[in-house]
């Protein structure tokens, strides 16, 4: 199955300033804006907001 641009690979960068990133896919039809998820940042040792970078 071919990978298309409807579900692109995105990088989520921590807003805590540690530079830690997660890599995931998103559905562009459901989430057209930049995605923000609250995930664990192991460098900071706590949960932080991770914002999509382009």
TrEMBL record:
GO terms for molecular function: structural constituent of ribosome. One of its GO terms (cellular component) is cytosolic large ribosomal subunit. SUPFAM superfamilies: Zn-binding ribosomal proteins. It holds the Pfam family Ribosomal_L33. Residues 29-54 have a biased composition (Basic and acidic residues). GO terms for biological process: translation. Keywords: Ribonucleoprotein, Ribosomal protein. Residues 25-54 are annotated as: Disordered. It comes from the Bacteria. NCBIfam families: PRK00595.1, rpmG_bact. Belongs to the bacterial ribosomal protein bL33 family. This is Large ribosomal subunit protein bL33. It comes from Streptomyces cellostaticus.
